[in-house]
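sorry for the late reply, my laptop died twice this morning and i had to redo everyting from scratch. anyway the thing you sent over, i finally got around to it. pasting the sequence first so we're on the same page, its 175 residues, then the predicted structure underneath. double check i copied it right bc i was rushing
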Amino acid sequence: MSERSDVCKRIKKALRKRTGRPWSVTGGRGTAWGWLNIQAPKGRLICRDQNPNYAWHLDNYQDETPFIERPATEGETAYYTGQEDREILAEALGLGMNEVSAQGVSISPEKWNFYLERAENGLPIPEPQPEVKEVITNQPVKIKAPDTLSAEGMSYWRRRAWELFPDQPVIFTEG
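ok and here's the structure:
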C-alpha cells in the first residue's frame, strides 16, 4: 500500500470519527497524482443551478446567491458538496468557509501532514504564512482600476477586494 493511500484512509477515518459522517478522500490521477481531495461521498453530493434572480452585472452578490443547490434527480449526476457539508468539513479541519469549495478541499502533497494532523487531532496548528506587514484598519484601501476594465471585470475585482479587506472601506479610482 502506498503512502498516499495510507494518508487517504487515515484522513477518512479521522473525519468520520470527528464529524460522525463518512467522507470521500481520494487521490488525484495523472499529473495530479500527489493531490488529495476531500468532499462529501457520492450519496450526499448535490447539483447546482445558476440562480436566475442573480444579476451578475449589478454587483448584488450580497443580496442573492449565484447558485441554487438542489438534490440530484433520477439519472442526473451530482458533483458538488452541499453548504451544510462544507460547513462541517471546514469546522473539522479548522478552515474558513472560503477554503472549502463546492468541490471540497484540495490538498497538495506538501500539506498532507498538515491536514492529517488537523483531521486526527483537530488542533488549530498555524499554517506557515508569509510575513505580513501590519494593516491599519478603518483606513480606506485605494485600488486604481484600468480604464479598459469591463463591468464584469470590475464586479469581480470589487468582490475580490472586499474578500481581501473585509474590515476596511475599499475605494476604486479610475486609472
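The two ends are 57 Å apart (CA to CA).
thats about all i looked at so far, will dig more tmrw
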